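This follows on from our talk about sequence and fold. I would like you to pick a protein and set down its sequence and fold. Go ahead and set the record down below:
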Amino acid sequence: MPGRREEMPFFLEDGAFRSTDLGFRVVLSAIVTPRDRYETLDKEWITSGIKRRQAKEDQKPSGLALRLNSKKALMTKADQQAEKVKATIRSALFTAESVLGYSMRRQVMKYELDSLKFMKTNVVPESVLEALDGNITKAMEAISMVDAEIDNFVQFYINRIKESQTYPEDMFKNQMDLIAQELIVEEGFSQGLKSRYDLFKLFKQHIALNKSQEGGIRPGSVLEDIFPAAARQ
């Protein structure tokens, strides 16, 4: 588990240390994924979903599937819209968390870039200087990619704010209250849950600001509110 930390020796009396329950998981990071692959990945995901649905349709419905379909049929239009409202709110919170995470990562990357630039001010051999220039260029390119991702997430977040205003006010308030109850921070709750509740309160503020401010809420304000240290230099 991620929280498990144990020191392991490299070698034991009978040879190199081996473990059957330790390893790593390969992931595809959005930060290093070329933007021209997004459309390809989306199409593959949609195609995969269509194939899965077709395979299920070809099979005889199970008892569970019949019960779920029956339950869905009994849902009123208001119930279905309430679920849609809840999904919009959760999507906004997830997006805000993504903005926060990328902004924190950018801060670390900016610190590393400043360190590389500072190293150039010292007297270093020509070969080292050339390597420094290469690393500085790569660091600046990486920060630019992160900036683009942050901008995309901020705009998506603003779109969720605007979408929230298209729902009936009473229904939206009810769903906000329900999610607030889920996120209420009590003693012993994790810091991650507290952070999510803080973002939830910020989301409420942004909704009110978007209503009162001419032209709607601005991306710069959203970014600064979610991560106050997000000033770009």
In short: The two ends are 37 Å apart (CA to CA). The first strand starts at residue 11 and ends at 12. Residues 86 and 178 are 9 Å apart (CA to CA). Helices lie at 38-58, 63-74, 77-120, 126-164, 169-183, 191-212, 219-226.
